[in-house]
Amino acid sequence: MGLFFYMNFLQEYVQHELGWHSRDVKKAYQALQSGYRAGECVGYANIEQVQAYVFTRFPATYQVCLKLIGKYFNDLKIHSVLDWGCGIGTASLALSQHFENLEYYLVEQDKQAKTYAIEFLTHFFPNNIVHHEEISKNIDLSVFSYSLGEVQNWQKTLDSIWDKTKYLLIIEPGTTVHFKRLMIIRDYMLAKEAKLWGPCCHTKLCPLQDNDWCHFAVNVPRSKEHRMLKGGERGFEQEAYSYLLFAKEPRNIDFGRVVAAPRLHGGHIDLKICTKDGAISTPTVGRSSGNYKTLKKCVWGDSLTHELL
Hints:
By secondary structure, the chain is an alpha/beta fold. The chain folds into two domains: 3-247, Vaccinia Virus protein VP39 (Rossmann fold, 3-Layer(aba) Sandwich), CATH 3.40.50; 256-304, no CATH class. The protein is built from ten helices and 15 strands. Strands 1, 2, 3, 4, 5, 6, 7 and 8 form an eight-stranded mixed beta sheet that branches. α7 links the parallel β4 and β5 (165-173). α2 (22-37) crosses α3 (47-56) and α2 crosses α9. The two termini are 38 Å apart. The model is unreliable at 1-5 (pLDDT under 50).
């Protein structure tokens, strides 16, 4: 199933199977927004707030998860997943698009959200197994999808999880505050000899300083209900995100990562690349370059496997 089709599929489910009253859902969305702005730990007080989340935040976080899974995990064997702070199961639903017969361990302090995570996973992907007990074995992939901020003692939590997992994916909003937090976590995990798979192509000090920070973006299609709840008119919105991916085993080091949207001109491309040497490079690539045709297709967040000619 394609991205937009799948989002519609989940949205149709929460409309038709869970009941839908647009006025109540809009009030629920406004209550959620008030909680976010107040810096509160927002849960799901009622079904309308779950529906509001599915139509407003789920499309963006789901697409970010899909993008990163497709970038790093297509060629890997993933059988078991720990989804920490799973919410309504966004990351697990995205993983189920790529892998069959998964075993899930869901950690979520909001009982209402976890109940719906289990319901969605078992409804859409009945061949998967959702465990209700504590983690009893090693895990292939552990995911913190927009949830690490909920952890009071993140060092202790990461220590415990890292001992049991092959891969650790941490996704955060693409803001300066969250980027700074990720840089602290990056240093902590590198000190534990974790292998950094992304987005960095090096383990040196991040070269993005002062008013710059490492983040990426996806364009998210907005349904009519999405526009109604948010009071927007555009058919798309942009979701900015940052992330870190660690593994127990090293991988081939890429030449660099595109850390800003390429600027395509009539006969040349302006790029911003974080290189394997731990430096920021801003090359201009013209038509005469052997890389030109390939680089015309690259997008923000892509890795470059070779040095530019």
